[in-house]
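F.,

This is the one I mentioned.
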């Protein structure tokens, strides 16, 4: 990777419509899963970089972007960070282009609504011009895929392929040895007008680079988690609780409460005469009384009393009383039945 500081670009200016009502009041990257914001898990995935202390994170923010900045100051105060505002939703390439004054040398692009587990220390001796992380999937038609030539190098990226022959889905995690080359390709992409439904997709810029001789390889990941819909968020919560984020032994010390692992219960949460778990995350300052909660996420300062929750997302400061159902309640909601 050389001696230059690695730039990590995280585009997150989207409105997160699939996670409403939660994203009316906060960016989707600040929705909680397994006791932390999605953004925190994304940043944790960078810990295996060859020099994780020598990075600069460039956050491309939009709607409610001030919350991203505040979260970074509170939870990642020692991380060098910049903020670029993308006011118009013109796509991934446009987001990267807005940050061009900060981009030179090696860079990562990380899309923050998916989480992966991979060993980034491999980049220390990487000789390729670029790397795309991929995962074999059963049905690639919902994703972009990487086409690999006989020599092992990527020849093209295809968005939402029509056939099932190539199942190497691109997971939204890229490395470029020289950010300048990507920026030149984005300029050419925009000059050519290569866009879809008014958005400039990164795959088109990368294909231009491949046309100009870019040597791109792929790394496969075993774990690729989605945090873009309520159902996917709960599935990701289950996985993370099973893989390193369970504190049920600590939570079980509470009296008058049954803990069914795996769960994450923040130390400041108050639990009284309830059954918690399995697969439950309870955030800071929550109060859970006379409730049964399973397969659910309760964000900071949410309160429940006399409820049964299953497969539910409960937003910050939401108040639920006497309801047995599946809940998708945004921040500051009150449900009383």
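My design for it:
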């Amino acid at each position: 990777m050389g001696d230059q500081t690695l730039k990590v670009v995280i585009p997150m200016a989207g409105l997160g419509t699939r996670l409403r009502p939660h994203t009316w009041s906060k960016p989707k990257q600040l929705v909680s899963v397994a006791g932390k914001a999605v953004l925190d898990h994304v940043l944790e995935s960078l810990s295996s970089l060859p020099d994780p202390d020598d990075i600069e994170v460039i956050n491309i923010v939009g709607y409610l972007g001030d919350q991203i900045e505040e979260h970074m100051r509170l939870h990642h105060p020692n991380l060098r960070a910049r903020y670029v505002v993308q006011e118009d939703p013109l796509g991934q390439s446009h987001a990267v282009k807005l940050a061009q004054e900060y981009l030179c040398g090696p860079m990562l692009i990380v899309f923050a609504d998916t989480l992966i587990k991979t060993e980034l220390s491999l980049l220390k001796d990487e000789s390729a011009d670029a790397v795309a992380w991929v995962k074999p999937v059963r049905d690639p038609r919902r994703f972009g895929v990487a086409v690999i030539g006989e020599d092992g190098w990527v020849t093209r990226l295809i968005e939402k392929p029509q056939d099932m022959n190539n199942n190497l889905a691109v997971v939204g995690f890229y490395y470029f040895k020289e950010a300048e080359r990507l920026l030149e390709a984005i300029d050419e992409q925009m000059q050519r007008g290569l866009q879809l439904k008014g958005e400039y997709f990164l795959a088109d810029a990368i294909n231009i680079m491949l046309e100009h001789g870019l040597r791109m390889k792929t790394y496969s990941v075993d774990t690729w988690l989605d945090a873009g819909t309520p159902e996917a968020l709960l599935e990701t919560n289950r996985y993370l609780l099973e893989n390193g984020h369970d504190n049920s032994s600590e939570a079980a010390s509470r009296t008058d409460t049954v803990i069914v692992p795996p769960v994450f219960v923040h130390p400041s949460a108050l639990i009284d005469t309830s059954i918690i778990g399995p697969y439950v995350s309870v955030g800071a300052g929550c109060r859970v009384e006379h409730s049964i909660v399973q397969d659910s996420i309760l964000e900071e300062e949410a309160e429940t009393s006399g409820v049964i929750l299953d497969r539910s997302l409960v937003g910050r400061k939401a108040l639920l009383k006497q309801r047995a159902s599946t809940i998708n309640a945004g921040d500051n909601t009150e449900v009383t039945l």
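The first strand starts at residue 6 and ends at 12.

Talk soon.
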